[in-house]
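Quick one:
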Amino acid sequence: MKSIVSRYWQNTLARNTIWMFLGQGLRLLIQAAYFVIIARSLGVAQYGAFAAVTAMVSILSPFVGLGCTNLIVRNVARDRSLLDESFGNGVVTTLATGLLGAFVVVGICRWTLPGSIGGTVILMVALADMVGLRLTLLAASTFQAVERLDKTAQFNVLISGARFAGIAATVAVVPHPSAQLWSIVYAVSTLLATVISVLSVRELLKC
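Output:
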């Protein structure tokens, strides 16, 4: 039995499949946990404001990066020497489109959502999901391109884990935080995950 498992683990496709399965499963569990904490700690009105902003951001965030996460997988899978160039282009494109998209979201939300939802909430969530999250996904795709799906899975868990740690620590200090405070924690925890992810790619590029 042990030899069968060992042979299965040595197979790259099988090993990568297991990593992604575990990563996605753990990510969903963590997301469910921190959304329960958010809903219980923020209350109906505050949670509704936060959910409205995240919904608006989620509509536009897929356009950030102009598909660079898919392009880096395609290009680097064909030619490993393009890794540095593709990642650099992806970072620049993601930052440019993400920042632009964030300000577009702020404008749309100010026009469509109730004025009671603070501008800080909108801006923090937009920056977290349209810049921080997208850069982390770019880093995850970079490792996917070189068949290191263990790192890809870890980054998927990292972003949710950082947010969970942030809200859990916040609730421990402030049992009923405002949507504004949580949006700041949301953005900062996402930024920390992004920094770790990007630095990991920099180490890969040095290899």
